[in-house]
Amino acid sequence: MAPRKIIIDTDPGQDDAVAILLALASPDEIEVLGITAVAGNVPLSLTAKNARIVCELAGQTGVPVYAGCDRPLIRPLVTAEHVHGKTGLDGPVLPDPEMPLADGHAVDFIIETLRKHDSGTVTLCPLGPLTNIAMAFRKAPDIVDRVQEIVLMGGAYFEVGNITPTAEFNIHVDPEAADIVFRSGRPIVVMPLDVTHKALVTKPRNDAFRALGNKVGIAVAEMTDFFERFDKEKYGSAGAPLHDPCVTAYLIRPELFSGRHVNVEVETRSELTMGMTVADWWGVTDRAPNALFIGDLDADGFFDLLTERLGRL
Q: Which residues pair with 200 in a beta bridge?
């Protein structure tokens, strides 16, 4: 089979970086048409910079990186330096990127790419707030039906929230954008906290990254060393969850994951539960299913895949 064509929409973030590295290390399965940066974990100036740092770390400077929206559709930007550090990639010491940003806006790149390629052949892979995707759908409604699938990291149901009591960070930052995407009618696969919290970087798993001995393996181990201090204290877990790489791992080995096709709606009106992803897991409403909501993964298989692929870079 030909590699699956994807656009990675991202706000790096250490776990975003690992997701990008996994995609770039898997050319037989994934063709990265471009990377679009959005404000989220840190402001846009840093997410656009970090995406290029990751491409250079992987030795893949031919992948275009576009800067996108610097704020949510209607809300002030909320960032997460308390998790990712002031740069978003705290942990390893990585050089500033030499590759330039691609000319043009990320939203226009998304629109042009979906129009250029055959309908149903490009998958969108959002790893951060959904602002760029929603803006593209608003600006060019004709592209919506051209999207093959949207595979995203965001939301939660049984794990409730990680930035508010009821909301996961990516959806909380721009719930209005998430609402547009979930109502788009395109096939959606959701990697919520319910599954990503099972992708824990325990010490043996992180030691395996470091033992690869290449720049990428060592950098990933140092990234995890940094952000696990926050997650281990917060959750009392044995390691930090690697949220975003679940998206790219799903594209490569979907059999590692299981979930249910259910209805998911995003709360946009209640300040108490703003950004909550209300998943009808038990089928108690008559609302039509609109997303494959992932609930479990083979964690050992996931980390075996990730370690093997990082070793290729």
A: 241
Catalytic residue status for 243: yes
Q: What are phi and psi of 33, to 5 degrees?
A: -75, -30
- The Cα-based distances of 209 to 101, 119, 224, 232 in angstroms read 29, 38, 10, 19
Residue 235, pLDDT score: 64
pLDDT < 70 positions in the chain: 228-238
Determine the straight-line distance between the first and last CA of the chain, rounded to whole angstroms.
22
56: nearest Cα among 15, 101, 123: 101
Closest listed residue to residue 125, CA positions, set 218, 51, 219 = 51
Q: What is the pLDDT of residue 84?
A: 87
Q: Which of 105, 117, 243, 261 is catalytic?
A: 243
Contacting residues for 76 by C-beta, under 8 A, at least 6 apart: none
Listed in sequence order, the residues at least 6 apart from 45 whose beta carbon sits closer than 8 Å to its beta carbon are none
Angle at which helix 14-24 crosses helix 44-57, to 10 degrees, equals 40
Model pLDDT, residue 234:
62
Q: Are 155 and 279 in contact (CB under 8 A)?
A: yes
* 3-class secondary-structure state, position 223: helix
Give the DSSP H/E element, type plus range, for residue 67.
strand 65-67
DSSP assignment of 188-202 equals EEEE-HHHHTTSEE-
The string of DSSP letters for 246-309 reads HHHHHHH-GGGEEEEEE-EEE--S-SSSTT-EEE-TT--S-PPP-EEEEEEE-HHHHHHHHHHH
Measured at the CA of 248, the angle between CA 265 and CA 105, to 5 degrees, comes to 75
- The pLDDT value recorded for residue 82 is 83
What's the pLDDT score for residue 60? 96
Q: Is 37 helix (H, G, I), strand (E, B) or coil?
A: strand
| pTM, entire model | 0.96
